[in-house]
Structures are given as C-alpha cells and as structure tokens.
Amino acid sequence: MKRYTLKKTCSALYLLRVVSPFLLTVISCSLTKAQLISDSLLIEGHYRVFHYNTPTGTVQRPSLIFVLHGSGGNGKGMMQSAAKMEQKASAENALVVYPDGYKRYWNECRKASPAEANGLNINEQAFFEGMIQFFLKRYKINTEHIFAVGTSGGGHMAYKLALTMPNKFRAITAIIANLPDDTNLDCTPSGKPVSIMIVNGTVDPINPYNGGPVILGKNMNMGAVRSTDSTLAYWAQLARYKGEPTFEKLADVDPQDGKTIERYTYRQKGKPEVVLLKVIGGKHDYPNDIDVHVEALSFFMRQIQ
C-alpha cells in the first residue's frame, strides 16, 4: 500500500510526503483542521487511489459515504461539489471518501463501454471491499451504515454496487444515470432490494430520460440505458412495492434556472426506500433548487433512523 499524505503542520506549511507502510509517522502538534489524505490499495496488480479528509473531532463507529466521480473525472474533482454535504456529514458522524476510477473510468455495468477499466474487467468490488476494510481498521466504521452517491458514470458505478454488493451498501444515490438496458448489462444482479434515490433531468442530452444510447463523445459510445421510469420500476419491484409512489413538488427556489423538481417516493416500514427526483428541464447537470449531495446525505441518514 502506498500512502501519499498531504499534511498541514503547526506552522501552516503544506508538505507532500510518501510514507512507507513500515514507518510510523507521528505529528507532535494538535490540528483543528482536517487533513487531506490521498492513499492507495494494491488490487490485483493495480494501485487504486482514494482521498478523504481526516475527522476534525472524535468519531464513534461512523457511517461511510463514497462519492463517485463521472467518466473522465477523479475523486478530488468531486470535493467541491460535495463540500456542503461533507460539512453536514461530520455532524451526522459520517466519513466521506472520494475514490478514483481506473484511469478516470469505472468498470461499471455497461457492456459497451470502451473504457480500459471495462476492457480489463477491473475488479471494482475488491477495491470497495478493500476501502471498507481500510476504514474499518482505521476508524472502526459501522459496516451496517455504508453508502455511495455517484454522478453520471459514478452513478453507474453506484448502481453496480447496489446490484452486486447489496449486503455491503445500505443505500445508494445515482445522479444523471439510468440503469443499462438488458442488452447492455454485463453485471449479474443479486436480485436483492436496496434503498435507492435517482436524480435525473428530463432533457438530459447524454443520459436520455426516456432511455437510449449514451454517447460521451467520439469513440465513447457507452451503449443503451433504460428509461428513468423503467429504472425506478426495477428497484421498486425488487422491494415489492405495488401501486403508485407518493408525489411531492419541491419548492422552486431558483425560478431563473428553468428547472423544477418533482419527488416520487416509495416508502413503507420494513422495506428499502425508493425515490426519484425528476428534474423538469434538467440537463446533464445539477439543479439549483437543491444541493444533490446534501439531499443524498439526508436520504442516507433516513435509512438508519
């Protein structure tokens, strides 16, 4: 395991250090601000990197939340988008982790993906299991309270975690992402229900709300996805819901952004919660009326109340 640690010293200087796993590094001063840590795990011959801010206070069996970047991105690039969520997460006794995909892409469930991660069949489950064990050893996390929120390609990775590791993940949130359709699915679903929140825009040109091909650019055809309604129905049916979800129209906080949000909820005691936030007029972006990551945090915390 390689560790690349960005440490803030008492004199407020930043040092980039490579720490051998055989050496113990001790900081003699007390820090009040979080330290940004970039660490890695060796998974089947590949160093897989993840980033997190150390807790500023005491945590007791904290929850663990993975924030997953989109195709072509990286973990650190998600930190600004999730900054408000991370601030609130500390008050909820939760740690937030920002993993990197393999060469900026995830090996998620889209068979057609030309990404190298898919071609090499990179073992994402082993990576996430390794991170869970890392944080269990370091912070004694509550392994019943593990969550993931992902955007676009990160949303597809979140779906894969729910499909293939439902016993590890209490809930996931997928943003601007639909499940692959049956012709484009190369994961083997467990068939077990998981609490799911979906946030999709109705005029998204990349992740088509009504289903179809996802094309990221030249030579990056990711194959076809289901419609959002079909994606919602898949998870609702796994949880054995019948009938229609409850409906709520959210406040239009920013009338100038051309977007409004409708919430559709399946919720019943003893069953996983399944939610769709339908962003009317939403494209391949985040709406202004809500902070999607804060909304994800609230959704996650409801699952453990």
Descriptive overview:
- This protein has 305 residues and is of the alpha/beta class.
- It contains six helices and 14 strands.
- It has a single domain, classed as Rossmann fold, CATH 3.40.50.
- The strands form two sheets. A twelve-stranded mixed β-sheet has the order 2-1-3-4-6-5-7-8-9-14-13-12, sandwiched between helices. A two-stranded antiparallel ribbon has the order 10-11.
- The longest helix is centred in the middle third of the chain and has 16 residues.
Would you summarize the structure shown here?
The chain has one domain: Alpha/Beta hydrolase fold, catalytic domain (Rossmann fold, 3-Layer(aba) Sandwich). Helices cover 21% and strands 28% of the residues. The protein has 6 helices and 14 strands.
- CATH class designation: Alpha Beta
Q: Strands across the major sheet, in which order?
A: 2-1-3-4-6-5-7-8-9-14-13-12
Largest sheet, in brief, is:
12 strands, mixed
N to C succession of SSEs: EEEEEHEHHEHEEEEHEEEH
- CATH architectural grouping: 3-Layer(aba) Sandwich
Strand content: 25-35%
Mind sketching the topology for me?
Elements: E1 3-8, E2 14-19, E3 36-43, E4 46-53, E5 63-68, H1 83-91, E6 94-99, H2 116-119, H3 124-139, E7 146-151, H4 153-164, E8 171-175, E9 195-201, E10 212-215, E11 221-225, H5 228-238, E12 246-249, E13 260-266, E14 274-280, H6 292-302
Helix pairs in contact: 1-6
